[in-house]
From TrEMBL:
InterPro entries xref list: Kinase-like_dom_sf, Prot_kinase_dom, RTK, Ser-Thr/Tyr_kinase_cat_dom, Tyr_kinase_AS, Tyr_kinase_cat_dom
Catalytic activity: L-tyrosyl-[protein] + ATP = O-phospho-L-tyrosyl-[protein] + ADP + H(+)
Record bears the keyword Nucleotide-binding: yes
Annotated coiled-coil segments of the chain: none
Superkingdom of the source species: Eukaryota
Name by which UniProt lists this protein: FGFR3/4b-like protein
GO cellular component assignments: endomembrane system; plasma membrane; receptor complex
Main location: membrane
Pfam families assigned: PK_Tyr_Ser-Thr
UniProt source species: Leptotrombidium deliense
Gene Ontology terms: biological process: cell development; cell surface receptor protein tyrosine kinase signaling pathway; neuron differentiation; positive regulation of cellular component organization; regulation of developmental process
Length: 229
């Protein structure tokens, strides 16, 4: 259950979650309750917490997870994101902190606070100049043009892949000033290959984080070309 006084934001989240058809890799909205200025959002229970939390626990016990385990996690996230795309939703905040795990190790994409419906051309244009984004996970065109699409979610998935193989390290953690980070990423800075990351997976990270949004694969292509081979 989540409580907040930001009723406008939470109603947006509820609207998005209600528009998403049920899928095993998407957290399920059970219901919500409004009283005065407080909104209670009731979602499916994920007993094992967030993927980020699991990874930070495993950093001291790396032998407890195999490359196959990382690939399975990646695969589940892709299937969830493919479903969101089919529902016409852009998540805009995909990261390991926003992926939950059930007791049966089923991954569930969660936290739809920034998620929005795409327009008929497949874009969502930000109109609020004060809206902030998770810069370290956000594609450059979204900063510059304040426009999101499935391809910006693909960029975020590339960063999530990198997170998996670094046990949830903070992307670009040596750069503290967001303005500097944005400039450097726009000019070609990319995440380096984690030591335990297979080359073919890192190649996927690079493809997902291409500076040209049209060059990035879409989620069905990721499934068919990378995870089903």
């Amino acid at each position: 259950m989540r409580l907040t006084k930001d009723t406008h934001s939470l109603h947006k989240e509820i609207e998005v979650m209600r528009s998403v058809r049920k899928h095993q890799n998407i957290i399920n909205l059970i219901g919500y309750y409004v009283k005065d200025d407080a909104v209670s959002l009731v979602i499916e229970y994920a007993e094992n917490g967030s993927l980020e939390s699991l990874l930070t626990q495993l950093v001291n016990y790396p032998n407890q997870i195999t490359i196959h385990g990382f690939i399975d996690f990646s695969n589940q996230v892709v299937y969830g994101m493919q479903h969101l795309t089919a529902c016409g939703i852009v998540h805009r905040d995909l990261a390991t902190r926003n992926v939950l795990i059930t007791k049966n190790n089923v991954l569930k994409i969660s936290d739809f606070g920034l998620s929005r419906k795409l327009d008929g051309e497949g874009f969502y244009k930000v109109t609020d100049d004060n809206e902030v984004f998770p810069v370290r996970w956000t594609a450059p065109e979204a900063w510059k043009e304040r426009t999101f699409s499935t391809k910006t979610d693909v960029w975020s998935f590339g960063v999530l892949l990198w997170e998996l193989f670094t046990f949830a390290a903070n992307p670009y953690n040596t750069i503290k000033v967001m303005r500097i980070l944005m400039s450097r990423v726009e000019n070609g800075l990319r995440l380096s290959r984690p030591e335990i990351c297979p080359q073919n997976v890192y190649t996927l990270v690079q493809c997902c984080c291409s500076g040209n949004a049209n060059s990035r694969p879409d989620f069905p292509e990721i499934i068919n070309c990378y995870f089903n081979n």
